[in-house]
TrEMBL record, chain A:
One of its GO terms (molecular function) is zinc ion binding. Pfam families: SWIM. GO terms for biological process: double-strand break repair via homologous recombination. One of its GO terms (cellular component) is Shu complex. The keyword Zinc-finger applies. Keywords: Metal-binding, Zinc, Zinc-finger. Transmembrane segments: none annotated. The keyword Transferase does not apply. PANTHER family: ZINC FINGER SWIM DOMAIN-CONTAINING PROTEIN 7 (PTHR28498:SF1). This is Zinc finger, SWIM-type containing 7. Residues 90-128 form the SWIM-type domain.
From TrEMBL, chain B:
The lineage of its organism: Eukaryota, Metazoa, Chordata, Craniata, Vertebrata. One of its GO terms (cellular component) is Shu complex. Residues 15-35 are annotated as: Disordered. One of its GO terms (molecular function) is single-stranded DNA binding. It comes from Xiphophorus maculatus. This is SWIM-type zinc finger 7 associated protein 1. GO terms for biological process: double-strand break repair via homologous recombination.
């Protein structure tokens, strides 16, 4: 598999450099198929489950609920916010993988057993399927969201 | 950031050696946007200050310098340098807020420096002042990710302005718990916080004291090994090696520092 087509590079910007080629290719294929048919074919769903394990289904649930919002402020700064199952908001960055959820800390950071958590996977999927919600906030609100001191 | 550190080392390299011209020596590494400086605080702060001065004077760019405690012996010329802004957040929360707020600045910095990440991270748990605790990995990841994301965003802003001060780089110093003792070991194998930071910083500069006879032989007070290493980045040529440079630093009795490429 060859990584890095111009089309797929656009998807999540610099965050993609953190992904192995197989995952990058998968998001590119999902994007292409969804653009053409507004569906994700079964073989890609199986591949998603194979690469990301149990968090694939949980992430697809978050996508179904349109849980991912891209916040933008007048400065041009952007960040993703994912509404978890309990209603809690998780802020994820554009250019690198980080999520304040416990699964990211334990599975990714501490045990090194996964690439990402369901929230970050939901961000990738929503971007691939172009179903990310958009919301404008002030620069000050953006700073507070990024620093984790308050919600928008 | 590795380009600025290499410039610091070259500028202060041995005048009696072959590298009289700072532009001589090994080819400049592709600029990695973020570097973690690992080693003793006294020396790492000096290297951070040198990086700030070099960036402000040689490259003419703005620098945001964050430290938890006021730097006592800051030369007056540095305090008055309008290109370097010193900030002294007391807690991790204040540091996060100040770094997160950099996108609001009308004149964004091209270099963000954080002195002693470990100091901010260690003090983050209320009621405990010694060592790291559970949840530290997440806090370290948040700070490192925010720093890298901020540098990536400010790079875009500076590039859009057509400014020659792009890209924005970040450099932070860290002393691991394992290194706080006298003997230096490969700390990332035992320090979970350093392992987390290594995920986000593209390059590492490790300061390791040389306790052999070489310092005495060079009439220096101290000798240090300076290892500059980094993983491959997309901007590197496809088949080129990952970044790996070694410098030697001599500190002489009157405080003079001299770098020498190994």
């Amino acid at each position: 598999m060859k990584s890095g087509s111009a089309r797929s590079k656009k998807l999540c910007g610099k965050m993609r450099t953190f992904l192995p080629a197989v995952a990058e290719q998968l998001f590119g294929d999902i994007q292409k198929n969804y653009e053409e048919t507004t569906q994700i074919p079964d073989d890609l769903l199986i591949a998603l489950k194979f690469v990301f394990g149990t968090c694939a289904l949980q992430a697809l649930d978050l996508v179904d609920q349109r849980s991912v919002t891209c916040l933008s402020s007048p400065s041009g700064r952007k960040a993703f916010q994912v509404t978890g199952g309990s209603g809690r908001l998780y802020t994820c960055f554009l250019s690198c993988h980080y999520c304040p959820c416990p699964a990211f800390t334990y599975t990714v950071l501490r045990r090194n057993q996964g690439l990402l958590c369901k929230h970050i996977l939901a961000v990738y999927l929503c971007q691939a399927m172009a179903v990310t919600q958009q919301e404008s906030v002030s620069d000050q609100q953006m700073s507070a969201v990024l620093s984790g001191t308050e919600g928008p | 950031m590795t380009d600025i550190l290499t410039l610091v080392f070259r500028t202060l390299s041995s005048q009696t050696g072959q590298n009289k011209d700072p532009s001589a020596g090994p080819p400049s590494p592709a600029p990695r946007s973020s570097t973690l400086l690992v080693g003793e605080h006294r020396l790492s702060r000096s290297v951070l200050l040198l990086a700030a001065v070099t960036a402000a004077s040689e490259l003419g760019v703005r620098v945001a310098f964050f430290a938890q405690t006021q730097i006592q012996s800051l030369p007056e010329c540095l305090q008055r340098c309008s290109r370097i802004t010193f900030s002294y957040p007391r807690t991790l929360e204040e540091l996060l807020q100040q770094v997160a707020g950099l996108h609001e600045s009308p004149c964004p910095p091209s270099l963000i420096i954080i002195d002693r990440l470990d100091g901010f991270l260690r003090g983050a748990v209320a009621g405990s002042h010694v060592g790291f605790h559970s949840g530290d990995e997440s806090r370290a990841a948040h700070l490192a990710a925010l720093l890298c994301d901020t540098a990536a965003f400010l790079t875009e802003v500076l590039e859009k302005r057509g400014s020659s001060s792009a890209p924005c780089r970040a450099i932070a110093s860290f002393l691991s718990d394992a290194d706080s003792g006298q003997e230096s070991r490969d700390a990332s194998a035992t320090d979970p916080v350093l392992a987390v930071l290594d995920r986000y910083f593209q390059a590492r500069c490790t300061l390791d004291q040389d306790r052999s006879y070489e310092a005495a032989a060079a009439a220096a007070q101290e000798a240090w090994h300076v290892y500059l290493s980094g993983t491959k980045i997309p901007d590197d040529c496809e088949d080129g090696p990952a970044l790996a440079q070694e410098w030697k630093l001599f500190i002489f009795p009157e405080g003079l520092m001299e770098f020498k490429l190994v």
